[in-house]
Design brief:
Two copies of one chain form a homodimer.
Chain A: H1 8-18, H2 21-27, H3 34-52, H4 56-62, E1 65-67, E2 70-72, H5 77-86, H6 105-123, H7 127-139, H8 142-154, E3 157-162, E4 178-181, E5 187-197, E6 206-215, E7 226-231, E8 233-234, E9 243-244, E10 247-252, E11 263-276, H9 282-318, H10 342-374, H11 378-413, H12 425-433, H13 442-455, H14 460-470, H15 478-500, H16 506-533, H17 540-551, H18 554-563, H19 567-570
Parallel strand pairs in A: 3-6, 4-6
Antiparallel strand pairs in A: 1-2, 4-5, 5-11, 6-7, 7-11, 8-9, 10-11
Helix pairs in contact in A: 1-10, 3-6, 6-9, 6-10, 7-8, 7-9, 9-10, 9-11, 9-12, 10-11, 10-16, 10-17, 11-12, 11-13, 11-16, 13-16, 15-16, 16-17, 16-18
């Protein structure tokens, strides 16, 4: 059984000491104080540790079950999910007009991290519900909101996102699922969707699909896609759930990891759906959900890597092998703990630099998100929303890529034991691998980042973000290094703007490296700020030193690789490969 | 079913065009020509493709079976292994005096790559036999050689390596298995070993363990370890196998990957063993086996990554999504194949650069190994042996680390489908992960490389290797870049020699980065040489261009990280982690 210790002190440090979100809350007139937050995080931590974490390994081993269209979650999930429901965790950031608790998203992110870390397999049954509610709240009719949001906030009804079709994944313009308008204003949907996380399961009374489909006669491509709310059961007038809607799980996938989470193929056959927003604007509306989901997937990468580090640091303090190169540290034992070996420390410090750097980024992005919602000034809202849009693909891709790196390093700390299922660490590696793939592969995130978020507005938003980073409270030598790195970034961005204008292949050839480049520099600024904030209690400067010495240098290679351009990438003919 | 295409043309290109091993063979008086090699590689390729590869996915799904000490390999392995035996593949590089075929190791390496690629799960039952025979051939008595080598070369008897104990993995000095000398000169062994690949199974008539144990009264630590040959069945005077020796498989491990390979816990209870070499020299003797196994594990990383690239390049040519940024490439289709997207090409080229670079390294190291055996001049033998010793940890670690990188990039090319077991690519990722761990973790390889292989002789062997690389036939601009990189390496090595003398923590703090640094530069030289050799048939310069543009820059970051030294690594107290 892999244990999990919630990082509550570190979250408090970030929320209150580093980013002072309390000040934002006060300005926004939110009635939340530090003590309330402490209580909330403690409760969440207890649920994660005592209820969710103990089911993680067993759920991986058992997997989800499919039988004639009925999907059953692994043993124990039903009881644990009931506790997530009754704790009110799913609606905590929801709209109070419909039963949500209206809490800041930054707290939702902290909860998200703990739940992902404790048991990603289980939290996948609940997590998408929040995204679905944000989308419904933003775009659906009052009637749909009244009918669906309260039960979804309670978690009695869960959400699912149905986008992908067998021939249409990244390229949603190709999708074929059809919607035909009925006399009563509803639609009937027909088609097949794949990779539908929690599209069918036994943990909720109802499952609300948000489905992308093409209305009869709609234009081809992405301009002809509409979004529909398609419930498993159609609530009748007295809200009872007796009418089963026309979709079924045709099968569930056998996956590398998150094996306790049921990923369905869903067949829609004359399924009743309700339009969300306007016809042919489905893709835009779906992004409200997807942007939330993308940040959440980054946080999943973070949560799982935090758990991986915990497992590795515990193991390396217990396992004894060999002697420290500078002489025995435990002379009375037959050998020293392997944490005394420099290379093991290198691995642990790398993990920790990414875990705590990622946590800082997730809090920063969520605080911008809160300001985009709660700020009293509209231009401040918009400015923060632009930052969120810029940072969403960065957070998703960089935190999940580092998530695999951390998990794999943690596994390496275990030696041979790391490859054995019993230890638990190999499951973390398998589970975290999905975060680089779903909600848009990290390659797609990088294209979104460099193309739509950086180059499209002439890098104005990126420049604004750079100003934000420069305004961080930092001290030398880190401050100096961060401003050098940011000057380099400005210069490189100018180079990109200039050359991408005439070379259509450039941005796609360097997109992943550019996202990484920005990610490493952002973490550097966050480490400098954490080191400057720390009152020596956490000794954050120990990690900051390591980060600037050993990790930030990666930017040099990335820069060189980016400036080598697209020629060597594009030269080979496709059939040469 | 994941298919596999043997890279026979590329192997021929390396053997004959790039490295001209035929010249070495002629000088050594070996009676092997190009046509014979072509026949051999073709036969091997057919076995790999038609017999081994089709069982890879099913064996992963089924796993190996354990029942009351009896271990059964997955369905189909018995028939496939019989073909490996009858093909004579296991004894192909064995000593002809005892029934081996005396073929050059460089051909053994090519066979090894194909077998690992086609089905690592299956080949793990045979592969360690070669290592065991090299060790027996080098160190055992004539009587043991006569009794064991012929049947092992035939593959009727297979080999296993029993080193690790629950509390003694990397630190073999801690091992406790005891050996007590008997009146007849044999020994009785008692103890428990773990992680014993193919220590028990049903594919061979006999299983020959090479076991490290401590003779009664031996000194503590690594100086008191002896090596024993411990057969599952003791051959009696007429060579029949009726007497079962005293060891049993207590269980097999449940692992992240290579699940069709049985990894046993073995209990030795009064097991009869025969001393190999002299008492208390066991560790040294074992290295004869382990060095072979280390190179072979690097080749496993290579083989699996070659298979991963094949899967990814096939998929990316078939899967259509979106349009190339420079305009439609398949205007008549609904979308372009994803291979038209620059980022997909970046991923494929990275994979290919590492696969073919790794293949070149494996052939180079094996050709040194052959010269260390077959060269007529003893000093030439010794010089080549030193190069093999230098490059063994580099090849093991660098090729397996790149193996995971390649497999994970290949998985990423599949998008969501890459996470589904059916596609086959996720199994490659799980299977290849072990290569970074077993036969000494890559962290241990890096310590061996920087410490025993580079710094210990004042970097003389490394300098010799650098001279070898400089003597490669290369053309500009690659030639110029390689010599710059090698000058940087010389300078960095001097810096290391100077500072490691006074700082015991330095080499361990930078060992992994230093190994990587040397690995990337070595591949650069190999790419320059391949590009210079190619007659435009393979267009190797397409990959060389990419390698120098996009991969070699990684050395800059590594150099900076190395020169940041050990301070930030060593500063935190152990209990701070």
């Amino acid at each position: 059984m892999t244990m999990y210790t919630p990082p509550i002190e570190d979250m408090q440090f970030l929320l209150f000491d580093v980013f002072d979100v309390e000040r934002d809350w006060q300005r926004a007139g939110l009635d939340i104080d530090r003590m309330m937050v402490t209580g909330l995080l403690d409760e969440c931590g207890k649920l994660a540790t005592n209820v969710m974490a103990p089911l993680s390994q067993s759920s991986d081993k058992e997997g989800a079950h499919w039988d004639q269209g009925t999907v059953t979650a692994p043993t124990g999930f039903s009881g644990a999910f009931a506790e997530i429901q009754s704790g009110g965790w799913i609606g905590m950031c929801g709209n109070p007009d419909f039963g949500g608790q209206g809490m800041p998203r930054v707290l939702g992110t902290c909860v998200d991290e703990m739940f992902w870390a404790a048991n990603s397999n289980l939290w996948l049954y609940g997590s998408l519900t929040s995204g679905a509610t944000y989308c419904i709240d933003a775009h659906a009719t009052e009637e749909l909101k009244e009918t669906y949001l309260p039960s979804m906030y309670e978690g009695r009804w869960t959400g699912a996102m149905a986008l992908t079709e067998p021939h249409a994944g990244t390229d949603l313009g190709l999708l074929r699922t059809k919607a035909k308008k009925q006399l009563d204003g509803s639609y009937k949907l027909n088609g097949t969707k794949i990779f539908i996380t929690s599209g069918e399961h036994d943990l909720a009374d109802n499952i609300i699909h948000l489905v992308l489909a093409r209305v009869e006669g709609a234009p081809a491509g992405t301009r002809g896609i509409s979004l529909f709310l398609v419930p498993k059961f159609l609530p009748d007038d007295d809200s009872s759930l007796t009418i089963r809607n026309g979709f079924r799980s045709a099968s569930i996938e056998h996956k590398m990891g998150i094996r306790g989470s049921a990923t369905s193929v869903i067949n829609y056959e004359d399924a009743v759906g309700y339009l969300v927003g306007s016809e042919n604007s489905g893709l835009r509306h779906m992004f409200t959900m997807m942007n939330f989901a993308r940040l959440s997937v980054g946080v999943q990468g973070l949560g799982l890597s935090a758990k991986a580090y915990q497992l590795a640091s515990t193991y390396t303090k217990e396992r004894v092998q060999g002697r420290a190169p500078s002489g025995p540290k435990q002379p009375d034992d037959s050998a020293d703990a392997i944490i005394e070996h420099p290379d093991v420390r290198r691995m642990l410090l790398t993990q920790r630099a990414f875990v705590e750097g990622g946590r800082a980024l997730s809090v920063l992005v969520s605080s911008y998100l809160d300001k985009s919602i709660f700020a009293t000034d509209e231009s401040e809202q918009q400015q923060n929303f632009r930052l969120v849009e810029l940072l969403t693909p960065l957070a998703k891709a960089f935190m999940s890529d580092r998530g695999l790196e951390v998990a794999s390093l943690a596994q390496q700390c275990f030696g041979g034991a790391g490859y054995i299922q019993e230890t638990g660490i190999e499951q973390v590696v398998r589970d975290v691998r999905i975060t680089q793939i779903y909600e848009g592969t990290n390659g797609i995130q990088a294209l979104d980042f460099i193309g739509r978020k950086v180059l499209m507005d002439g890098a104005q938003t990126l420049r604004d973000f750079i100003q934000e980073l420069l305004s961080f409270d930092m001290s030398d030598p880190f401050k100096e290094k961060v401003s050098c790195a940011l000057s380099d970034l400005v210069e490189l961005t100018d180079w990109l703007l200039e050359h991408a204008a005439t070379n259509p292949d450039l941005s796609g050839s360097v997109s992943v490296e550019f996202l990484d480049y920005c990610g490493y520099i952002t973490y550097a600024a966050l480490w400098a700020r954490m080191a400057a904030t720390d009152d020596s209690r956490f000794q954050k400067s120990l990690i900051a030193n390591f980060y600037f010495d050993k990790i930030l240098p990666r930017t040099g290679s990335l820069r060189q690789s980016i400036m080598a351009g697209s020629e060597s990438v594009m030269k080979p003919e496709s059939d040469w490969f």
